Amino acid sequence: MAPPSRLLPPALRILHRCRASTRSRFSTAASSLFSPPSKAVVYDEHGPPEQVLKVADVPPVEVGGRDVCVRMLAAPINPSDINRVEGVYPVRPPLPAAVGGYEGVGQVHALGPAVTAPLSLGDWVIPSPPSFGTWQTHIVKHESVWHKVRDDVPMEYAATVTVNPLTALRMLQDFVKLNSGDSIVQNGATSIVGQCVIQLAKVQGIHTINIIRDRPGSEEAKDKLKQLGADEVFTESQLNIKDVKSLLGALPVPALGFNCVGGNAASLILKFLRQGGTMVTYGGMSKRPVTVPTSYFIFKDISLRGFWLQKWMNSDKAEDCRIMIDYLLGLVHEGKLKYEMESIPFGEFSLALEKAMGKHGSQPKQVIRF
């Protein structure tokens, strides 16, 4: 007769539970279930990421009745992840022993005996809304955290679908009612949000005017954005003229602009906007303030707004979030949404971190592959 599961070592408990799951998802044969031992990127204090982050062994974690154990497949390094480690982001995981990462995709490894969500072993899932601690090989969280996603897209897209593409989608929908034939203007157009804005706008028949930095390879960057569907792409120096609207040709003057840079790049957005236009700021890569001439308020009635995805997701939008994620991954599957990423093995996390922090020049989004 097989020994009771409580007498088995942790690793065999997992095997015992998984075998039981194939017979019945609600089997009570395993009285105690644990995750496998894991590795995680952790930090005990805030500071420079290259100094405070370390890869550590994490002991097995008990899987409760309605918990799901997920084996992570991939997770990105976002700028906000770095800001959390530095301690400058408004919302951060508690210290010590904080695990980095905020979004990612994994595969269901084991199910607690009382799980009622429609999940099966092997399903691809993402934390939705995102949650702290995705830079680790195994995660145990309540079933309500996990959202099943399609597995017929590259895992890097499932890992990155929430933060950047969802930001682009919400900004296109939440501030100005746009109709087919309208146009928007944005800076930071080579970012993933920028690339997504171009493609999501194209799906809706909306034109995009895009601003990029002056740097080596800017002509190549212009070509790539136009291949994605951009109508116009300008470097910042091209817009050092009094009447930037003369560059629009037949395109309508935009009513909506997106700023993720600040400083002069934000001022260029304002120059394009029509009477009563709105500029939405969702980032500040230049770390320079947004400065607005008084005349823009008085004579153009410009509105300045801000967008923070985490606040939006925390405002009882979980179900909406999941519906839009499914929509975005559907566009990925159809070839209508794509962006540049670089996949790096978890064992080379330090290199991925350096690239994400710009220490190797401009790099694509870094995605850790477990």
Tell me what the structure shows.
This protein is of the alpha/beta class and 370 residues long. It folds into two domains: 5-160 and 340-369, Medium-chain alcohol dehydrogenases, catalytic domain (Quinone Oxidoreductase, Chain A, domain 1, Alpha-Beta Complex), CATH 3.90.180; 164-310, Rossmann fold (3-Layer(aba) Sandwich), CATH 3.40.50.720. Helix content is 30%, strand content 22%. The chain is built from twelve helices and 16 strands. The strands form three sheets. Strands 3, 5, 6, 7, 8, 15 and 16 form a seven-stranded mixed β-sheet that branches. Strands 11-10-9-12-13-14 form a six-stranded parallel β-sheet, with helices on both faces. Strand 12 (256-259), helix 8 (263-272) and strand 13 form a beta-alpha-beta unit. Helix 5 crosses helix 6 (192-203). The radius of gyration is 23 Å and the shape is globular. The protein starts with 9 loop residues before the first helix and ends with a strand. The relative contact order is 0.12. Mean pLDDT is 91; it is low at 1-30.
CATH superfamily of the largest domain: Medium-chain alcohol dehydrogenases, catalytic domain
> What proportion strand?
15-25%
Q: What is the radius of gyration?
A: 23 Å
The average pLDDT score comes to 91
- What is the correct CATH architecture of the largest domain? Alpha-Beta Complex
Helix and strand content put the structural class at: alpha/beta
- What is the CATH class designation of the largest domain? Alpha Beta
- Helicity range of the residues? 25-40%
> Strand count, sense and closure of the main sheet?
7 strands, mixed
The number of distinct structural domains comes to 2
Overall, the morphology is globular
The number of helical runs is 12
Number of strands: 16
| Low-confidence runs | 1-30
